[in-house]
Write a structure and sequence with these properties.
Growth Hormone, Chain: A, 16 helices, two-stranded antiparallel sheet, globular, membrane, two-stranded parallel sheet, 3 domains, POT_fam, 66% helix, transmembrane helix
Amino acid sequence: MSLTVADAVDYKGLPADKSRTGGWIPAALSLGIEICERLSTMGIAVNLVTYLGRTMHLTSAASANVVTDFMGTSFLLCLLGGFLADSYLGRYRTIAIFASVQTIGTFLLSVSTRLPQLRPPPCQATEVTQCKQASNFQMGTLYLSLYLIALGTGGLKSSVSGFGTDQFDEKDEKEKAQMAFFFNRFFFVISTGTLMAVTVLVYIQDEVGRSWGYGICSASMFVAILVFLSGTKRYRYKKCLGSPVVQIFQVVAAAIGKKNVKVPSDIALLYENLPEALQIHHTDQFPFLDKASVVTEDDYGDNGSFRVNPWKLCPVTRVEEVKKMIRLLPIWATTIIFWTTYAQLITFSVEQATTMERTIGHFQIPAGSLTVFFVGAILVTLAVYDRLIMPLWKKWKGKPGFTNLQRIAIGLFLSVVGMAAAAVAEVKRLSVAKKFSETTTLPITVFLLIPQFFLVGSGEAFIYTGQLDFFITQSPKGMKTMSTGLFLTTLALGFFFSSLLVSILKAVTGSSRKQGWVGENINKGRLDCFYGLLAALSFINFGLFLISAAWYGKKTVKRAPEVEIIVEESSFEEKC
């Protein structure tokens, strides 16, 4: 067995020596960055809505939209981070640069919450509209802090998991097993960081001070960067191979440029320049894209020499990779709505908690910490699935657990039930609010909200792992980073759709005389109707997902009759 890794180099640019580079310890050093990123992002997100309402004096709907826009931007910028890592910087530099950006953002946020000049004067009025709202300068400083954090999160998040897997050689059975362990524990690490954020960090923000909480985020990320940089000499580095986004644009541009060209009936005449072992066999689906592989007179120079312009002529394998990505889109589109329901748990559900009885003895639970039930549901679900469901399923069906599409379906269904439970809980809360309209804290226990947190949290455990597995294993091998970014965009679009939906409902159901379903005060709104609408939309989306999954399964079977393709794809799934 070779003592070096064929497709990796060390920090000097020499072939990576297995005995001196890579392995579990260097991979684990990158997990510190991921834990601190979750600590910062979620610690801010789950408790930001209370700060915007109580301190900055924003309305309920405006506060929710600020949070969802912040989270949506964080995940959308993962595409930028993936592009820079693949095309120019590499994953190591991308992580180091954008982790530093997030550190600066959290430090600035700590300063902005500390200085009295950067927030409006305190107000004890029961209606937020009677208080002086934050000025444009104060909100601008807050936005600068938040979107620096979003930029840092988006830049590093798309590279951390990939950089961790770069530390293992897939051709080495021992290291392949270590990589599988790394993948299995990656989401658990994310959840651990989130758990620390919604318990310890939220408590510090509420009881000690916001600036202290955000300062801890900045300091922990700074320490994580130092730990990450300490492994520089032990890491394995993969060379930049170019962005898959550019490759997709090349195929589309070549196909459009040859829109009037007829595809030959003999597919052997189509252009291919890759060795047999790396080729993907031609499929009949999306025949328009095949035009990108048709050789024409324009592909020859004046002297008759054959020349290849990737924007005018693409090999069949490149075209088939684009086709594979297109086949993923229906599944991608039908998973967006889940993250819209998820957004409500860190915005409106936290606002609900602020109006309810939260004391246990002499201790008052911070409203943002109620999401601990959400994170707890994730950890419990993962443990039960790993230790109970998978062994039973293997004995019964002979398969090691549910397929990725089955896990996504379970997650979507649980979100439907979760939103229905949220609507029922809000009906009960509003009935109490009508009787005690002048009371700051309503005489109704906050534990009434536990079912919605638990159901959607369990749903995330299934859908997050299912999506990650689906987009990595079903995408072309050369587009693994892009497929991870594609998965993360579902989170971004889910948060943005939440903001859009809130804005539309505020305009449609409200007027100058009434606030509508969502608005200044949730005790005077109809949040139950909003949750009911989300439950209905989620149910419709669940049906569309089942249709899309059936279509995807049918097309997958139909397009892979050859043994070679089946062996190649199953081998790739095992590697991932």
